[in-house]
Amino acid sequence: MLTLDGSQGEGGGQILRTGLALSMVTGRPLRIERIRAGRAKPGLMRQHLACVQAAVQVSGGQADGAELGSQSLQFTPGAVRAGDYTFRIAGAGSCLLVLQTVLPALMLADGASRVQLAGGTHNPMAPPFDFLQRAYAPLLARLGVGLELALERRGFYPAGGGLLHAQIKPAAQAPAPFDLMERGAPVAAWAEALAPGLARSVAARELEELGRRLGWTHEADQLRAPGVRQHEGPGNVLLATLDYAQVTEVFCQFGERGVSAELVARRLAEEVQAYERSTAATGPYLADQWMLPLALAVWRTGREARYTASELTDHTRTNAAVISAGLPVQVATDTGMDGNALVHIRPQ
Predict the structure, then answer these.
(1) Exposed, middle or buried: residue 141 (CB in 10 Å: 0-12, 13-18, 19+)?
(2) Under a CB-based contact definition with an 8 Å cutoff, are residues 44 and 67 in contact?
(3) Residue whose C-alpha is closest to residue 146's, from 167, 164, 131, 129
(4) Average pLDDT, the chain
């Protein structure tokens, strides 16, 4: 049995999600105690229950303790089954976190799968749809895994109501690990301001301030306000996409009541500038998200792999500890002489 302490490290929901994913791919039963002990409201919330229920469906498993507020869970997986699935979260809980819970199992399944997900697509506590589509899915493709994402409707906090579709195609052979040490030459950089249900001036002010701080211009098509539908809001997200030869990074900041458009832009500019000061391939969030798919490829092939990161967060370090406990791999982290963090995954 894989036994995890939900209070370790940053003590959040990722320990549960990674634990469920590892349980499904290895067939090991999972027991987790003190779930989300590091949060103001510990225990399982709706979005975490949705992850458990999705894992039960995909693996034909059983879960004891799967109820709101529960701080302990025992999950026993069955055989993972490729197929067509629909998962829904009431409200704005992130349906993308549900996808990331079942994706590791489905990318190693014996056939392709289609998944429809409803809920939050742009949530301050989770990677937005644009991050998965532009930054995450292309790296999976380099492993040999197909992940095609289509957004039908955005869903912002607190209303939710988003809808997206995912097609997952496992690698023809075992996923092939690779090193990601450099980002490569810059290709393009642009920002998008989405503000459905809000005054148009919100998006315009965000883009103006961001352009001033980063030197991006409308003339170079770097400051964009894509069309939105009013029923997708109210909501506001400011996105920056940096496309390089070897990797694409996506950063975002969410508008909220009482926070000026200029402050939202300033916060995003600081994130972008911190990444640009580094020479690492991945930023702090991609470094976290990329770790599990790459570890699965290392496990399946017995070949080690490395990547660089501009920063290792507590979230990332906790994820490394959980993966090392659940797979026969060692996830080591270090800081190089250039100041970049290095993640090195070796088979045991």
Answers:
(1) middle
(2) yes
(3) 167
(4) 95
In this structure, the strands spanning 237-244 and 2-5 are unpaired
Backbone φ/ψ region at 91: left (φ over 0), alpha (ψ -120 to 50), beta: left
**Which residue stretches of the chain are H helix?**
13-26, 46-59, 95-107, 129-131, 137-143, 200-214, 261-277, 284-301, 314-326
How far apart are the C-alpha atoms of 326 and 333, rounded to whole Å?
Answer: 17
Global pTM value? 0.95
The one-letter code for the residue type at 202 is V
Residues 6+ apart with CB under 8 A from 198: 233, 234, 235, 236, 255
Does residue 335 have a pLDDT over 90?
no
Exposure pattern of 221-235 as b/e (b: 16+ CB <10 Å)?
ebbebeebeeebbbb
Catalogue the active-site residues: 315
Cross-strand bridge partners of residue 242 = 189, 249
User: Each residue of 137-181: pLDDT tens digit?
Assistant: 999 999 999 999 999 999 998 889 999 999 999 999 999 999 999
Looking up tokens 């506590």 gives: 125
Number of H helices and E strands in the chain, helices first, is 9, 15
Rounded distance between C-alpha atoms, residue 343 and residue 184, angstroms: 18
Contact 214, 206 (CB under 8 A): no
Q: Answer whether the bond into residue 158 is a cis peptide, omega within 30°.
A: yes
Q: What would the pLDDT profile of 298-308 be if each residue is shown by its tens digit? A: 999 999 999 99
